[in-house]
Amino acid sequence: MESDFLKVSNEKGVGWIRLHRPEVLNALNRQMVADLVGLLESFDRDENIRAILLTGGPKAFAAGADIGEMAQATSVEMLHLDPFADWDRIRHISKPIVAAVSGYALGGGCELAMACDLILASESAKFGQPEINIGVMPGAGGTQRLTRAVGKARAMEMVLTGKPITAQEALQAGLVNRVIPVEKLEEEAMKLAEELASKPPVALRLAKQAVLKAAEVGLEEGLDYEQKLFYFLFSTEDQKEGMQAFSEKRRPLFRGR
């Protein structure tokens, strides 16, 4: 399942993917993104995997897109290449994705982290959308997800100036869930992914859907959507097992049914 640009493992219900182009700080070329999306979809179909962990290296999660691939392209060539088609597929991954970010998460790297469901950052992490400095702007969700995560004022400053923010600033702004010492990052991220993998898979999937829906619809529609998913879960075996285990004061055994 590995590719030239990805390292992969599978343990304790967690599919672990490591971005691996260290010579270019994990710059995201088209093949790397295509391989990553294909692997994410493969993990999403695998019943033995219940959560996904995405990491980079100590110096960079991903320092941006591979500029050399697009520097001389025309508008029409970019339209035909449609480099963001693969990125759109990440939105449809139903299992929770934890990003463990150390070092640079810039441009496409920041957008990739934001496409995940939870972000743990090391103290060395830096998040930014510096595309303005090379004559373009974010195109893989940077303006949209960043604004939803940190608010208009902070997003506008980051996008228009291209200046990155530190891990602590990202935490204060609501972009990341936790900041962790560099040497503990992957251990803590794996613990979080394993915790997610221990939850009832169907409820986990629907809860993720409901939270994502909140960014897309108004409150009334969102509440209606949430309630329908809540009622649906009473048709699952895991709901019966979870409530029975609670009554019996024992650990539930969830099977994803």
- Return the average pLDDT rounded to an integer: 94
Shape: globular
Widest sheet: strand ordering: 1-2-3-5-7-10
Name the structural class. Answer: alpha/beta
Strand content: 15-25%
Give the CA-CA distance, first to last residue.
27 Å
Unreliably modeled segments: none
Roughly how much helix do the residues carry, as a percent range?
A: 40-55%
Number of E strands: 10
Number of helices: 11
Radius of gyration: 19 Å
The SSE string, one letter per element, is EEHEEHHEEHEEHHEHEHHHH
Largest sheet: 6 strands, mixed
Set out the fold topology:
Layout: E1 6-11, E2 14-19, H1 30-45, E3 51-55, E4 60-62, H2 75-81, H3 85-90, E5 97-101, E6 104-106, H4 108-115, E7 118-122, E8 126-128, H5 142-150, H6 152-161, E9 165-166, H7 167-173, E10 178-180, H8 185-197, H9 201-213, H10 219-232, H11 237-247
Parallel strand pairs: 2-3, 3-5, 4-6, 5-7, 6-8, 7-10
Antiparallel strand pairs: 1-2, 8-9
Written description of the protein model:
- The protein is an alpha/beta fold and 257 residues long.
- It has eleven helices and ten strands.
- The chain has helices at residues 30-45, 75-81, 85-90, 108-115, 142-150, 152-161, 167-173, 185-197, 201-213, 219-232, 237-247; strands spanning 6-11, 14-19, 51-55, 60-62, 97-101, 104-106, 118-122, 126-128, 165-166, 178-180.
- The strands form two sheets. A six-stranded mixed sheet has the order 1-2-3-5-7-10, with helices on both faces.
- Helix 1 links the parallel strand 2 and strand 3 (51-55).
- Helix 5 crosses helix 6 and helix 9 (201-213) packs antiparallel against helix 10 (219-232).
